[in-house]
Amino acid sequence: MRGQETRGFQSEVKQLLHLMIHSLYSNKEIFLRELISNASDATDKLRFRALSIPELYEGDGTLRVRLSCNKKTRTLTISDNGIGMSREEVIENLGTIAKSGTKAFLESMSSDQVKDRQLIGQFGVGFYSAFIVADKVTVRTRLAGTLVENGVFWESIGEGDYKIADITKETRGTEITLYLRAGEDEYLDDWRLRSVISKYSDHIALPVEIESKKDKDNSIIWERINKAQALWTRNKKDITEQEYKEFYKHITHDFNDPCIWTLNRVEGKQQYTSLLYIPSQAKWDMWNRDHKHGLKLYVQHVLIMDHAEHFMPNYLRFVCGIIDSNDLPLNISREVLQDNSVTQNMRSAMTKRVLQMLEKLATNDNESYQKFWNQFGLVFKEGPAEDNGNQKAIAKLLRFTSTFRDNSTQNVSLEEYINRMIKNQEKIYYITADSYTAAKSSPHLELFRKKKIEVLLLSDRIDEWMINHLTEYEGKSFQSVSKTDETLNQFTDTSEKQKASEQKFETFINRVKTLLGERVKDVRLTYRLTDSPAVVITSSDEMSTQMAKLFASVGQKAPEVKYIFELNPEHALIKQVSELSNKEEFSEWIYLFWDQALLAERGSLEDPNQFIRRVNNLLSI
Ligand code: ADP
Fold first, then answer.
1. 3-state SS string over 214-279?
2. pLDDT at residue 220 in the model
3. Residue 289 pLDDT
4. Which residues does ligand 1 sit against, CB inside 6 Å?
5. What pLDDT, on a 0 to 100 scale, did the predictor assign at position 493?
6. CB atoms within 10 A of CB 94
7. pTM, 2 dp
């Protein structure tokens, strides 16, 4: 062999191989699905490139993958006549893992095997899964359209390194030979192979053939095992649930079943088929900046593009599946897709489909919907800002924590909230805070708890932004409980008692105003508190505390929030302090209330040490 060399695997590959062999032992047969899936991708790639360079077929346009066994050498060989690989590609593809964030992901896996099995399942082990059943793997491959002497040989025992060399290979494509580990002889058995193939490969368009029996003249007969018709082109009523699931696993490399799916054929001005899935688990790299959309674009059954992000808005980026269009040209590029009216129409129709599918799930199977929400709610919350046109449908699907359930699970819908609104309540009340605990113990909730008015507790970073884009739901507007709100007066005790307090505390309020000066927008009495002495609120035209924090967290300067300082005349401490004549003592107390209110509102103080000193001083009087 020419150009032979030994190269080390990238450290991530070594880690993956180790984890995989130790965590996937109970589901070994999936290696066949992974390898057949790769062969199918390789033939898709060839078909696509041959659209512009037909010579790549090298005179053989019948694409297929073949499996053959040799009982003497205890080997199983999977060979395709797809695109194949060059030497550089072999080094890149079979020696490294290019997915960004892999290192951190693999390191995050503990030795807890059950958990790892699920995690590694979402990661997609692909080619390396061959080592689950084989202790040596060889690959012979040649890139379509290159000379026969440009073949490449690759061999590894799945530990630290691999061998690579140049060889002569007559046929294009890739041939992978697995030297089975002791005890894995079942994969040499004809019936076992047939059953695994039909289980995993019925839905893919590529014929999967198995070496059947030698003819009299000793020539080999290949028998097709799978249906070899792309799943989405089949009659809907003939497709089983299992086939939908397997197809999902084929396109996503996810080991878990999908949560829900929808297959639609659109015939009319535009003609296309879409098969859209929602996974049951968020992909490990969903939050990476270069996370790729999981939609594949086919044009007239030819795979044109993986990760076709143009067909789904960002807040639905977890949707996976395929679109097969009859209208787009075969040579369409990403740039052209971008501002193409066909694309726009399909995107808008498919967005609606996904929202409808979710609504159906929420109505029919609350438990599954809750699982969906726990996995993808955070992404979905980008919806109101991104997709104004579907705001109503999106709002219906949102789930919140609220004071009604008093636990941190986001499981309250707006519909439920509205059904529980009390008499004369016109608005949907919410609070935003840094954490669920901070939200639920905020002094702003005191009146609401007393009057049994439900409040949505929002504490995801995105919530403030989301709620600002939600204008209304079923005619009800959204109101922050930390902002001024005239309609609340009807729930407070605006009686003679209040008038009396206003008079009695007038001087007190004026003294506080003089003391705090420019720091505050206004000082006034409040009837919204039951337990706290004071609270700060923002006026409805000002930026909220959470929004200001959001600005600060991305390094932008937000205008300073000026609060209205409200004091509770029913509180014993306020009553006492209002009668203090000693200026210094009075000031210490007022600043203490002020800092307390700021702390409750913002979660931090500019000068916490001064606050501590003040508390200690007052405690030691
Ligand atoms: P993935 O398929 O998720 O990218 P794999 O580890 O299965 O990861 O494969 C890595 C890469 O190796 C593939 O992306 C592909 O480029 C290449 N590859 C694997 N199998 C084949 C094959 N049968 N023919 C051509 N290329 C292949």
1. ECCCCCEEEEECCCCCCHHHCCHHHCCHHHHHHHHHHHHCCCCCEEEEEEEEECCCCCEEEEEEEE
2. 83
3. 67
4. 38-39, 42, 80, 82-85, 93, 124, 126-128, 174, 253
5. 65
6. 22
7. 0.85
pLDDT of residue 592: 95
Residues of the chain falling short of pLDDT 50: none
Token pair listed for 461? 């970073």
DSSP state of 149: G
Residue 111 has what pLDDT? 61
Measured in Å, residue 287 CA sits from the centre of ligand 1 at 24
- Give the distance (Å) from ligand 1 centre to CA of residue 106: 19
Q: Is residue 368 part of a domain?
A: no
Q: Mutate which of 33, 38, 175, 254 to test ligand 1's pocket (most atoms within 8 Å of Cβ)?
A: 38
Q: Which of 226, 258, 289 is the last residue of a domain?
A: 226
The pLDDT of residue 92? 92
Domain-embedded: residue 366: no
CA of 35 to the centre of ligand 1 (A): 8
Query: Which residue owns the Cα nearest ligand 1 atom 7?
Result: 126
Domain count, the chain: 4
Domain range for 524 is 492-619
Of 161, 196, 226, the last residue of a domain is 226
pLDDT digits (tens, 9 = 90+) for 17-66: 888 887 777 788 989 999 999 999 999 999 999 999 999 999 999 999 99
Structure confidence at residue 253 (pLDDT): 85
Q: Which two tokens stand for residue 389?
A: 């046109």
Ligand 1, atom 12, lies closest to the CA of 93
How many residues are listed for the chain in this entry?
A: 621
Those residues with Cβ within 8 angstroms of residue 426's Cβ, 6 or more apart along the chain or in another chain:
476, 477, 487
Does some domain include residue 608?
yes
Describe the strand order of the beta sheet including 456-458 as a list of residue ranges: 401-402, 456-458, 428-432, 476-480, 472-473
Which residue's alpha carbon is at the smallest distance from atom 9 of ligand 1? 127
From start to end of 438-497, where are the E strands? 456-458, 472-473, 476-480
Of 41, 45, 46, 123, which is best to mutate to test ligand 1, by the most ligand atoms within 8 angstroms of its C-beta? 41
Nearest CA to ligand 1 atom 14: 93
Nearest to 250 by CA among 209, 300, 199: 199
| CATH number where 132 lies | 3.30.565.10
Tokens linked to 313: 């808005």
Q: Which two tokens stand for residue 570?
A: 């029913």
Question: SS3 helix, strand, coil % of the chain, rounded to 5?
Answer: 45, 20, 35
Do 482 and 496 belong to one domain? Answer: no
Residue 64 token pair: 């297929």
